[in-house]
Amino acid sequence: MIADPFVQLRLLDLQAVDTALAQLAHRRRNLPELAVIADCDQRAAGVRSQLVDAETTLADLAADQRRMEADVDTVRSRARKDQQRMAASGVPAKEISSLEHEVASLARRQGTLEDELLELMETRETAESEVADLKGRLEAVAGERAIAATARDEVFEELDDAEKKRHADRDRLVGTLPSDLVALYDRVRESSGGVGAAMLRQRRCEGCRLELAGSELSEVRAAKPDQVLRCENCRRILVRSHESGL
Ligand SMILES: [Zn+2]
């Protein structure tokens, strides 16, 4: 391929733009805020699952409490009925004795139920405070995430602007270069880790850092200025300049 030496040098400007674009993309991918956000999401998922468990426990306790309160009511109303029956006239002595026995037994049962109820209400308070604690933790994580997301969006905006400028630079440069040269450069760049064109400086390819010697050096020295050269080692387009040391 043939290209004017000045055109070949502009390929290095295009490479500089592409390298800058790659650095911007790298920065976008490796933003510390992205790790913070991922960490927040992971922690929030953990807390949310704990919260589901805690809320289930709390709902179960509330149901237990309602059932126990209903049991207490039943026992109380039964005892009240017994007492009313005992107070009525003409109740046989044998029945009175049996009722007295039942009332005493109901009182014991009520006492036990009330103790259990008290214990359950304490457990429920603990469960309630755990739910509140988990909700608080969830909010804190959400706040942390929001701060990171805002910071991320700000940097993304900066990166968007920088990329837009670089793309405009690229378009401008590409417009001044022969399309077959750009096509070759793009192809090499894609297969060579983002570097398609490298300067030959002091007989060294700046793409692979290898110094030209022997027949390769002779060939490069003998090549016409407008000949587009490739590094024999890394296959990148080798651009000569007054610093090439030939
Ligand atoms: Zn090379």
From TrEMBL:
Give start and end of each CT398-like coiled coil hairpin domain: 14-193
Q: Does the keyword Aminoacyl-tRNA synthetase apply?
A: no
Q: Which InterPro entries match?
A: CT398_CC_hairpin (IPR056003), Oxidative_Scav/Glycosyltrans (IPR052376), Zf-RING_7 (IPR003743)
Q: Give all residue intervals belonging to the C4-type zinc ribbon domain.
A: 204-238
Give the residues annotated as coiled coil.
Answer: 96-144
Q: Which Gene3D superfamilies match?
A: 1.10.287.1490
Swiss-Prot/TrEMBL keywords = Coiled coil
Entry protein name: C4-type zinc ribbon domain-containing protein
Give the classification, highest ranks.
Answer: Bacteria, Bacillati, Actinomycetota, Actinomycetes, Jatrophihabitantales
